[in-house]
Write a structure and sequence with these properties.
It contains 4 helices and 9 strands, in the order βββαβαβαββββα. By secondary structure, the chain is of the alpha/beta class. It has a single domain, classed as Glutaredoxin (3-Layer(aba) Sandwich), CATH 3.40.30.
């Protein structure tokens, strides 16, 4: 389990149009927003990433960098990027499932062809959203066991505004006896 105020696992992936991404060397002024999505086969991911792409300038205004990534290969990631038409959104691909699991993501098995007619990969990770501080420590994390009920990006922006204005600390860091 990832712990707030502790280092997150290493994260290096290729991106479609923004070169190689390495979380350790590509720190944002305040936070890096890491959005793990299920893949091209997921219509909910498409809708979710459309919203992320629309709000990308708002994240950037606040000194945040954003990456959306999945275990899809480059071809499927490009198909998703083409559907999104958000060229400034960094789209990572080829996330290893070992790395996904290290980040605490749930792994699912294929159920065949989805409602939009795209075959699910044999194995893929479920969604997660993380805010990582420039020092590589976890500030915020949310993971799901399925594609539904994800954090809303407009609410995340409001939370970032509050956290930055109030110097609000990461919470959930206690690991002692209860």
């Amino acid at each position: 389990m990832l712990m707030p105020r502790q280092a997150v696992p290493a994260l290096q992936v290729p991106t479609l149009a923004h070169g190689a991404f390495d979380l350790a060397t590509d720190a944002a002024e305040h936070f890096t927003v890491v959005v793990f999505y299920r893949g091209l086969h997921c219509p909910i991911c498409h809708k979710y990433l459309l919203e992320l792409g629309r709000l990308l300038p708002e994240f950037e205004k606040r000194g945040l960098k954003v990456i959306a990534l999945s275990s899809d290969g480059a071809e499927r990631a490009k198909a998703m990027a083409d559907k999104l038409n958000a060229p400034d959104l960094r789209m990572g691909h080829d996330l290893s499932l070992t790395t996904a699991r290290a980040w605490g993501l749930y792994i699912s098995t294929s159920r065949g062809t989805t409602s939009i007619g795209i075959e699910e990969p044999a194995l893929f990770s479920e969604p997660g959203v993380f805010l990582v501080r420039p020092d590589g420590t976890l500030y915020y994390g949310a993971v799901q066991t399925m594609p539904f009920a994800r954090p809303h990006f407009d609410e995340l922006l409001a939370a970032v505004d509050f956290a930055l204005a109030k110097n609000y600390p990461a919470r959930g860091e206690y690991t002692g006896a209860v």
